[in-house]
Amino acid sequence: MFKKVLAANRGEIAVRIIRACRELGLETVAVYSKVDRTALHVRYADEAYPIGPAPVQESYLRWERIIDVAIKAGADAVHPGYGFLAGNPAFAEACREAGLIFVGPNPQTIRLMSDKIAARSVVKAAGVAIAPGTDYSLSDEELIAAAEELGYPLLIKPAHGGGGKGMRIVESPEEMPRALAAARRESKAVFGDDVLYLEKIVEGARHIEFQILADSFGNVIHLGERECSIQRRHQKLIEEAPSRALDEELRRRMGEAAVKVARTVGYLNAGTVEFLLDKDKNFYFIETNCRLQVEHPVTEMVTGIDIVKEQLRVASGRRLRYSQDGVRLRGWAIECRIIAEDPYKGFLPSPGRITGLYEPSGPGVRVDSGVYEGFEVSLYYDSLIGKLVAWGETRGEAILRMRRALDEYRIVGIKTNIPFHQQIVNDTRFIGGQFDTKFVEHRFSMVESEREEHLEVVAIAATLFAQSSNRIPPQSVIPEDEAPGGPAMRYIATVGDKSFTIEIDGGEMTVDGQRRAVDIKRIDGVSLYSLLIESNSYEVFVEEKKGEYQILLEGELYSVRVEVKEVLGKPSGAGAVAAIAAAIASLLEEVPEARLEVVPSPERGLSSWAFWGRYRQLMRSRELRRGRR
User: Fold this and answer.
1) Are 84 and 11 in contact (CB under 8 A)?
2) Which of 27, 433, 527, 595 is an S-S bond match for 4, by CB 3.0 to 4.6 Å?
């Protein structure tokens, strides 16, 4: 086997490649753009080299720079991951010409299968059914005429590329001219050409794909199917393996078709053959992805086969370690793509700095991630943060574990689609397997959180945090025997259009007139707090942002405004001491900067406060001034 591998990618997939290499005892090389200097893949690799500024056209898509780095570093092989240059036959060819092993299919196969029009023709000739559509490069006028023959609705698709880019759904003849123009523009901008074809929409279809592995000795196997029907605008969001829509006989027939496609085109290494499955269990070839897929972890979880390691072994000239009879599917796995976007605002991107991060763990849970606390999610790249995978003996157990893992996942500083996933895995139709590729767009909508309990919890958390940050007058709440006895206060905490009146007096708190026993403790080192309300336990991430408090509770991010309504009582005890100290300070006219400071007691944490007048400091300052005179 070769000794050193360059990961020609970034983010979680570059980390995934580096980890597989390390387990095989291979040295690793990372490449990075200017903004990725502190990215995890740079930190985990044995060597790392800059390749340009942030824009992908000037860094991760500049394959000549990447090949130069590989040669300079003495790498034997290049692994492209997915996206960027992974499906680029010119890059695969350039690697070969430079004496580097490309971890993937040969350039001829990539070139053939990346041309989806040509691929449809080859697959059809091999006897595998394809979705009705056009099989030649046609002009707009010819495509409009073909659409009339195919019937609406239909899909305009780019002949090259993927990921939903350049695709348009057309419902009627009137929409065709504008949709064709838009699809051509986007396809040209993203993939470098504007060749389009038409594909008839299969109503009620499910998206089923088969993972394949092939070596240079003619061995080709499949690793079972993945269901990818939960998608939005042709972008996959949730994947699972296996699929509830398949029985053993259908799985066998579809798997054999996938292997037949691979053999027909002389496939090598790992890839995916994708199908549409209609309501009557008829399946149609869509395309072949000549690369590692984003969703490969679910297949790894149910087969126990490390696909990335197999890629590396096959690329080094070794035989597959598995036969088709040796592949066994065990249990069920579900993957949720965690993306930096706001599901309540049309899935708008949410770039920014991650100020708090806690990734779930425990039995059956896997997180493939390329971020960390303090990481800057950039607009320059795909907004995928990581992939959360849950495995169970049954689909029901996998769903329950996914629910638990989503509840544990904490990401603060940016908005994510975690609430979307939480609602999906709790949807009765998803649980019952009653969905298709149009489920998210046509039969599902995000519902704003309306749990009164959560609104009260975040209002309490924000009020206590505001006190601890000295933004409003301090007052201990719990436990009562440690309360400093400052002035009783009334606050107004507003969450959206809901306001709470919160009164704090010594060791007692009331919320809208109802007494609440509250205790809050900060978890050292992070903005994470353990909050007990009437012995009910909550974990909240809290931070101040633009004059409001951002509270993350069970995956939902809330914005809370806290205002002082009024002082209800006179200060006593420690509060009186503080007032006296302030009065003394005010008498020292020579020290106009005199002020009262309130600092947390390190011995007692958030539940108690030590009040410090600056009397000694002020007196010392006064003496020094007299000495200067």
Assistant:
1) no
2) 27
Helix (H, G, I), strand (E, B) or coil at 260: helix
Q: Is 453 exposed, middle or buried (0-12, 13-18, 19+ CB in 10 A)?
A: exposed
pLDDT digits (tens, 9 = 90+) for 444-467: 988 876 567 799 999 999 998 887
Do residues 421 and 386 lie in contact, with contact meaning Cβ atoms separated by under 8 Å? no
For the record, the structure tokens of 232 come out as: 């939005």
Query: Kind and range of the H or E element at 142?
Result: helix 140-150
Q: Measured between alpha carbons, how far is 395 from 397 in angstroms, rounded to an integer?
A: 5
Q: How far apart are CA 295 and CA 288, in angstroms?
A: 15
Question: How far is 623 from 562, CA to CA, in rounded Å?
Answer: 41
The size of the chain, in residues, is 629
- What is the dihedral sign for C-alpha 369, 370, 375, 380? negative
- Three-class SS of residue 530? strand
DSSP helix, strand, coil percent of the chain (3-state; round to 5): 35, 30, 35
Sign of CA dihedral 438, 183, 293, 215: positive
Q: Which of 192, 199, 110, 200 is nearest to 157 (CA)?
A: 199
Distance in angstroms (rounded) separating the CA atoms of residues 347 and 339: 9
Tell me which H or E stretch contains 258: helix 248-264
Separation CA 337–CA 227 (nearest Å):
14
Instruction: State yes or no: is 291 an active-site residue.
Output: yes
* Whether the Cβ atoms of residue 298 and residue 241 lie closer than 8 Å to each other: yes
Q: Which of 291, 313, 410, 614 is catalytic?
A: 291
Element (H, E) at 619: helix 615-628
Report the Cα–Cα distance between both ends of the chain, in Å, rounded. Answer: 81
* Residue 626 three-state SS: helix
